[in-house]
């Protein structure tokens, strides 16, 4: 995966998940250091609606599988 | 929340999420250092079926709200 490309794409996520992957609002999950495989599965679930979340569906709706892999690798690479 | 009580209850979770909250299998999320509020919301979603996951529904199905608060506080207290 391309972590640099993932970091660029993840700029859109920082509003809720934090610029460093630590969410300021405790209602939102920290993503820093999370398993990339799990993050991809979660994004896919939001995209398909398996997980029902309007905001996340809107955020990931336009992402390709490759984008998701890159974003997930970026967050996994961040130290907690 | 009662972190000690949470730790005792979380023994059942260690099989997938790791004794230290770091999942050996990358398909499962790390829970160590995650926001307690998010963890409670996730457990509630598995319990109600808002998140459709047979194993997690079985795992959290018998937990009280207080159990979930304690378990979540325990995992939040773990350093990544």
Describe what this molecule looks like in 3D.
Two copies of one chain form a homodimer. Helix content of chain A is 55%, strand content 0%. The first copy, chain A, has 80 residues and is mainly α. Chain A has a single domain (3-77), classed as Orthogonal Bundle (Cytochrome Bc1 Complex, Chain D, domain 2). In chain A, helix 3 (36-48) crosses helix 5 (65-77). The longest helix of chain A is centred in the middle third of the chain and has 13 residues, at 36-48.
What descriptive keywords fit this protein?
homodimer; 80 residues; mainly alpha; Cytochrome Bc1 Complex, Chain D, domain 2; 5 helices
In N-to-C order, the SSE pattern of chain A is: HHHHH
Structural class of the helix and strand makeup of chain A?
A: mainly alpha
Oligomeric state, counting identical vs distinct chains: homodimer
H/I helix tally of chain A: 5
Weakly predicted, low-confidence segments of chain A: none
Rounded to the nearest angstrom, the distance between the terminal CA atoms of chain A is 20 Å
Largest sheet of chain A: none
CATH class of chain A: Mainly Alpha
Of all protein chain pairs, which has the greatest interface, and how many residues does each chain bring to it?
A: A-B, 19 and 19 residues
Query: How would the global form of chain A be characterised?
Result: globular
Overall radius of gyration of chain A: 11 Å
Strand content of the residues of chain A, in percent? under 5%
> Average pLDDT across residues of chain A?
96
Helical residues, percent of chain A: 55-70%
CATH architectural label of chain A:
Orthogonal Bundle
């Amino acid at each position: 995966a391309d972590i640099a490309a993932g970091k660029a794409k993840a700029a859109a996520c920082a509003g809720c998940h934090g610029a460093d992957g630590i969410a300021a609002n405790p209602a939102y999950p920290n993503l820093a250091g999370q398993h990339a495989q799990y993050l991809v599965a979660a994004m896919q679930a939001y995209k398909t609606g398996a997980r029902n979340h309007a905001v996340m569906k809107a955020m990931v709706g336009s992402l390709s599988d490759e984008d998701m892999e890159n974003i997930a690798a970026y967050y996994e690479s961040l130290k907690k």
